[in-house]
Amino acid sequence: MSILLKTENTLRFLTIPGGGGSLSNHWQSHWEKECSTMERVDQDDWDTPVKSEWVATLDSAIRRSEKPTILVAHSVGCIAAIHWTVALANQVIGIFLVAPADVEDKWADPPAAYASFRSIPLEKLRIPSLIVASTNDPYLSLSRAKFLAEAWGSELKVLGEYGHIGSESRLGRWQEGIDLLDRFSVHCLNVNTHKTRFSKGK
């Protein structure tokens, strides 16, 4: 198998799909097939998500990591990842957030299952994070993307008219996203190495 990412043999990558999971044509599915150290966090119920259950499943997957780990999340999966940071484990060194769904918008009002993910935590993250947003996402306005990036201390990369940057966007293996994750993972590894050396007094 060819190497998808420069850090592939050093890091573990966990994909966190949004509601419904990621279909075979989703970029997460393509990446999982091509990256030897990337695997999916499988939820018991993709169609009626419950925040507490999703976060618990994510936490269990993260704590099995023997390598430094980067979370690769999409849509509501991003919000689950942010909720998880309340119990941040040492294994995670970065969060790659693609089109985080704004579950505080009216589309997620009850009885929609996504209302259970409210309220979105707004604490600054203690690890590097990158938000990838589009200019015409029906589930995340650009103004909210900028607001969340500022609240979380995240870098923000705005693409063109990519919609929700999911299966319906027909991105295939999404080379642009691979390049973004590649650079981001190298950055996270460098930051983590510096922190480790500093904590040991080197």
Give me some keywords for this one:
202 residues; alpha/beta; six-stranded parallel β-sheet; 5 helices; 15% strand; globular
Descriptive report:
The chain has 202 residues and is an alpha/beta fold. Helices cover 32% and strands 15% of the residues. It contains 5 helices and 6 strands. A 6-stranded parallel β-sheet has the order 2-1-3-4-5-6, with helices on both faces. Strand 1, helix 1 and strand 2 form a beta-alpha-beta unit. Helix 2 packs across helix 3. The model has no long low-confidence stretch (mean pLDDT 92).
Distance between the termini: 37 Å
| Multimerization state | single chain
Tell me how many strands there are.
Answer: 6
What global shape is seen?
globular
Element string (H = helix, E = strand): EHEHEHEEHEH
The percent range for strand residues is: 5-15%
Largest sheet, in brief, is:
6 strands, parallel
Report the uncertain regions.
none
Find the structural class using helix and strand composition.
alpha/beta
